[in-house]
Write a structure and sequence with these properties.
Elements (H helix, E strand, L loop, with lengths): L1 H14 L7 H4 L3 E6 L3 E3 L4 E10 L2 E3 L4 H4 L5 E12 L3 E12 L4 E5 L2 E7 H6 L11 E5 L2 E6 L24 H57 L4 H19 L8 H11 L3 H19 L9 H13 L6
Parallel strand pairs: 2-10
Antiparallel strand pairs: 1-3, 3-6, 4-8, 5-6, 7-10, 8-9
Amino acid sequence: MRQAGRVLILLVVALNWVNAQDAEEDASILVDREVSQTAVYLGDVFEYKVSILHSNELAFITEELEDRLIVRPFELLGFHVEQTDLGEAVLMEMVLELVCYEEPGLLDIPSFDLFYYPRDELSEGTGTAGQDVPARAITVPPHKIHLQSTLLGEEDQLRDTTLLLSFPRGELIVPTVSGILLLVVMAGFSVVAVRYVVQLRETDGVEDQAQLQEEALSAIREVRQRGASQEPEPAHYLELSKMIRRYLHSAYGFFSTALTPEELRHELETNTSDGDFAQRVENLLDACDRTFFDPGMAPGPDFSEACRQAEDIVQSTPFEA
């Protein structure tokens, strides 16, 4: 199969061959040229391949060939040679990687000479190639390639006028209406989902508030019972004050245990719209603290009345901000 491919290459090359300068000496050499692109833009890199099919009785000089090639106005970026033995013939393929930065137009890849020797003359010569045996040359003809411009010409357009979708506009009514209905349904579903989530959060908030109030009232009742079973002591007022502060901390989140009654009132006025509630909290905490820290001053409410005021504060707590 590989040999059949080689034979096909020979036929293609033979159809495009170019005679060498000396017909008698070079009749056994066929030259073919091809480019990877027939048109390139400024700065595009393309390949220019020259195929030389010759008898195995000839030997081409490929040493330092890259340094001797002149391809102006093109620039040579890469070069490699591959030779394939086909029995009585040899296929030599030279691939040049070229680029051009000239003005757009139809350009010629310039011609160049390839040098070779008949092997029988080399074997009969007394010196090295290039000294006693004169080299023969074959010229690779020029090859045209079109260098295109990236700028628009007079008749060029940025976009063509080809209609991508060719159907009556009336057929768009059904998909348009369906899309609108789908958007409406999705919007309605979104509104219902948001309301459901809000209701769940509100329900959870109400349950948390009720539980918080119930725990605070239960703690106040326990303190009241201890105060009723024995003579109320200043420590009972301190315990009641701490209880109210912990409750307010849980209800509003600010650090109420470290605030004075007056500072606590300011915080409550900031977090609620009920000034009377804030004032009642300040009065109760101020009375409890005064009874504990300075019992020699005018007495505040008795302990049972203080507990009743604490219960009233818990039950009337405004949770809305």
